[in-house]
Design a protein that fits this description.
This protein has 337 residues and is of the alpha/beta class. It has a domain of 222 residues: NAD(P)-binding Rossmann-like Domain (Rossmann fold). The chain is built from 11 helices and 14 strands. The strands form 4 sheets. It has a 7-stranded parallel sheet, with helices on both faces. A 3-stranded mixed sheet has the order 12-9-14. It has a two-stranded parallel sheet with strand order 7-10. Strand 5, helix 6 and strand 6 form a beta-alpha-beta unit. The chain starts with a strand and ends in a 7-residue tail after the last helix. The mean pLDDT is 97. The protein binds nicotinamide-adenine-dinucleotide and UDP-4-deoxy-4-formamido-beta-L-arabinopyranose (WQD).
Length: 337
């Protein structure tokens, strides 16, 4: 199958391209490089043996999309392209609504024009807001506390309405929990621009000496050790979840929603500890105030994906941290320009 992968040079997209190539799929990448580098393509080739066709362009550009669909004989789309920094979304909400919501609407309208009717969308556990209990199943109520989260929720709602009006389409909403880790080759990984927003890239930059210490955002939550608890999932497990979705649902019309998580919750301090063990480095930290908008705990009930997609996460905390460290220590400054 020939799959258009929007945002395919980003963190999750690049790992998914590798797993797709290994599974016999043919990814074609559209990315505007706003949060990635073209050298990622060389690494995909190096690790997988195949260099996917790359088109530098924007998902909001319908002309570019229609050209790709017409020239490349695309069967389905995995839509990763989006902006994801929660804090920035509060400062620049229009940028987020334009990129994430409008970008998806332009994509779907181009797909409709050419008759491509299978879409897998990168949603997020952020759509559960502050859940009333854990673990979280797909039928929990949704809400959002910031423009980024609202943009994901709006897209879910737009796609739900669209699928209802076009019942022959197959649309899958994959709600990711907290993706971490890297390809075990140490050649691909997460390469955030500037100061990392997320825990694990920050921890690895402290371990390598790029930052002095980690600020732990609060130790007075009602959790096992007072720090926030999340469902960290290895990025390759997440990637495999997309392939499972294409395999099982690609030809099955409907609106399908799945949690992609492990079902385990680890605290910030457990993550720090695991990273210290994997790296053999100390990760100094200081307890600071809670981060506004954070929740105490969040983890998935991933059983629906296991039942329907025959998918479950298999990589443990040790591989998540060891693979992150291999990437960070082999590429202390991330990808080359
Ligand atoms: P990323 O920033 O590494 O990758 C996104 C890619 O999309 C980048 O290469 C960027 O250049 C590209 N892009 C952005 N806007 C574009 C546009 N308008 N046109 C073309 N390309 C564009 O992010 P990621 O972590 O790989 O996340 C991928 C998707 O998964 C995003 O939609 C994100 O919201 C979602 N998601 C991520 C996480 C996470 O913690 N990483 C969790 C849940 C959901
Ligand atoms: C994890 C834990 C922090 C950084 C965010 C988005 C969510 C999704 C994933 C895209 C929390 C603590 C963090 C630090 C810390 N993204 N922490 N010091 O907040 O679960 O989710 O990324 O969809 O939408 O909101 O992930 O990695 O930022 O934080 O103590 O420097 O680590 O308080 O408990 P989060 P995270």
């Amino acid at each position: 199958m020939r799959i258009l992968v929007t945002g395919g040079l980003g963190y999750i997209g690049s790992h998914t391209c590798i797993q797709m190539i290994e599974a016999g799929y043919h990814p074609i990448i559209l990315d505007n490089l706003c949060n990635s580098k073209s050298s990622v393509l060389d690494r995909i080739k190096e690790v997988s043996g195949h260099r996917p066709l790359f088109i530098e362009g924007d998902v909001r550009d319908k002309r570019v999309l229609v050209d790709i669909f017409q020239q490349q004989n695309i069967d389905a789309v995995i839509h990763f392209a989006g902006l994801k920094a929660v804090g920035e979304s509060v400062e620049l909400p229009l940028r987020y609504y334009d990129n994430n919501v409008n970008g998806t609407l332009v994509l779907v309208s181009a797909m409709q024009e050419v008759g491509v009717k299978t879409l897998v969308f990168s949603s997020s556990a952020t759509v559960y807001g502050d859940p009333a209990s854990v673990p979280i199943t797909e039928d929990f109520p949704t809400s959002a506390t910031n423009p980024y989260g609202r943009s994901k929720l709006m897209v879910e709602e737009c796609l739900t309405d669209f699928q209802k009006a076009n019942p022959e389409w197959s649309i899958t909403l994959l709600r990711y929990f907290n993706p971490v880790g890297s390809h075990p080759s140490g050649r691909l990984g997460e390469d955030p621009l500037g100061i990392p927003n997320n825990l694990m890239p920050f921890v690895s930059q402290v371990a390598i000496g790029r930052r002095e210490f980690l600020s732990v955002f609060g130790d007075d939550y009602e959790t096992k050790d007072g720090t926030g608890v999340r469902d960290y999932i290895h990025v390759l497990d997440l990637s495999d979840g997309h392939i499972a979705a294409l395999k099982h649902l690609g030809k099955k019309s409907g609106l399908h929603t799945y949690n992609l998580g492990t079902g385990n919750g680890y605290s910030v301090l457990e993550m720090v500890n695991a990273f210290e063990q994997a790296s053999g480095r100390e990760v100094p930290y200081k307890i600071v105030e809670r981060r506004s908008g954070d929740i105490a705990e969040c983890w998935a009930d991933p059983s629906k994906a296991e039942k329907d997609l025959d998918w479950k996460a298999t990589r443990n905390l040790q591989s998540m941290t060891a693979d992150s460290w291999r990437w960070q220590s082999n590429n202390p400054d991330g990808y080359p320009d």
